[in-house]
Amino acid sequence: MPAQQLVQGGRRRGAGGLVQAAEDAAQAAVAGTLGDQGDAAAAPQAQPGANAGAPGRGPAGPLPGPAHDPHDLNGVWNMRRGFGGNAYGRVPPEMTDWAKDQFKQIKSSNGGDYTLEQTNDPVITKCYPPGTPRIYLQPFPWQIVKGDKEVLFIYEYDHTVRHVFTDGRKHPEDVTPTYMGDSIGSWDGNTFVVDTVGFNDKTWLDRVGHPHSDQLHVVERFTRVNLNDLELDITMEDPKALVKPWDVHLAFQLRPDWTLEEQVCTDNGDFLHFEK
Fold it and tell me: At 276, is the secondary structure helix, strand, or coil?
């Protein structure tokens, strides 16, 4: 991953915060491709660019912590060790013929297969928003802020904000395609379910470059298991790109002493000159 991203995510949290953020991001990049797919020996052959051969320790379980109101998701969250990286796990999605053709044209620099000058990653070359759910794989923290009629997801990366409406509204019939999609949320017991549609087709599903179409439908299920830990199950459906739904799992740790910093893609300078 570009070093700017590794450092930027923790630079203003003091020496301890900087080191911790860097360690979190590095461990996620090395070990995170194991995701929650189980032991490496039992997993299918890894996808290209997913750092599959790295000697990761596997995903970390929830930390012991006091009970907490499961309906209170507020706070700054960062990827827990062993999750994240370039992909969600060792098992790639089952792609349609259309998606396979698109994937052949992908030149991802995140796994080392291509340089930054060769990549066609729209996040790097065009400063496009990463999209949902790829944004969780960017090595930056994010914050949940609950309001009366909506929940805000504020991502430090590129200062991206998602409005998850909780006032009972439905998706607009004439929804405007966007990078992050149109999101509505509701509670299923102690799990906050976010349903998102209305995507354009300009983003990737992950940092490896798996494509999607404007028919993408993403469902995120957030469960706060204790004070410190937030579990996230994601289902991606796309009849044009995916043979069947792609289910993945991520996990986040509360960072109560952290605050988000403004971070804009263009502030990182030209990524294409980073390797020089």
Answer: coil
